[in-house]
Design a protein that fits this description.
The protein is low in regular secondary structure. It contains two helices and three strands, in the order ββαβα. It binds zinc ion (2 copies). One zinc ion (ZN) binds next to strand 2 and helix 1.
């Protein structure tokens, strides 16, 4: 089961469980679509693998299988960035 990490490791953008912009590699390194399609050029900087869109987790399953709350993004980053 996926951790459903809450943010982009690179820029800290919020990636909620229903976000269509979340991208993951085989180790579930988690980035936003803007980073993957832009600076990362589709290659995971941690493992060198490729990315796939992360499936959303429906709300009724989040009650039983909560998403991870452990942010991996840059320290101190908030969702104040322009989107
Ligand atoms: Zn990002
Ligand atoms: Zn990776």
């Amino acid at each position: 089961m996926l951790e459903m990490r809450p943010d982009c490791e690179r820029c800290g953008t919020d990636l909620p469980p229903d976000s269509p912009d979340a991208r993951i590699c085989t180790f579930e390194c988690t980035f936003c679509a803007a980073c993957v399609d832009g600076p990362l050029a589709g290659v995971c900087p941690n493992c060198g693998g490729n990315f796939e869109p992360r499936p959303i987790r429906p709300a009724h399953l989040l009650e039983k299988f909560p998403a991870s709350a452990e942010r991996k993004g840059p320290a101190g980053s908030t969702s104040t960035s322009s989107s």
